[in-house]
Specification:
This protein has 162 residues and is mainly α. It has one domain. It has a three-stranded antiparallel beta sheet. A hairpin with a 5-residue loop joins β1 and β2. α2 packs antiparallel against α3 and α2 crosses α4.
Length: 162
Amino acid sequence: MALRNQRIKSTRHGTYKLNLPAEERQLLAHLLPQVKALITTPADESDERVKRLFPVAYANDAAHDAEYQHYMRDELVTSRVQSIDTVLESIEARELTEPQLMAWMRSVNAVRLVLGTMLDIQEDDGGPELLPNDPMFSEHALYDYLSFLLETIIEALGDPTG
C-alpha cells in the first residue's frame, strides 16, 4: 500500500499527485499510440487482440449483438481515443484532475486488456509463476505492472481524504 500511495495520491484540493518515474511514463507513451492505432483501424472480427475492448453484448443472439456492435462500436472507439489522447497530453504532468485520472484508468485498462488477451490470461487466472528465462516473461511482467498501476489509480480515486 505504501508504494501505491507514493505513486498516485489524492490531495485535499480534489486533484491527484502523480509520482511515476520517467521510464514508466515513457512506457505508457510508447504503448498507448499502439492501442489507439489498433482500435481505430476498421473492425476486423478476426483480430482477437481487441475482443475484450469490444465485448459481446448478446452472447446467445448473433443478430442482436451485431446490431449492438454496429451502434456502439463508434462510441466506444471515440471514448477510448479521447481517454488515450488525454493521457498522452498529460503524460508529463505531476498533478491530475479527476477526469484526467479517470482517462488514465480507462487507458491503462485498455492496454492491459489487449495484452491480457494476447497472453490468454483469464479473469480467474492466477497463472503459474514465470521464470526469468521464460520467453513470455517480459510480457507477463508488463501485464503485472499494468495491473499494479490500474489498482493504484483505483485506490487513489477511492481515497477522498487526500
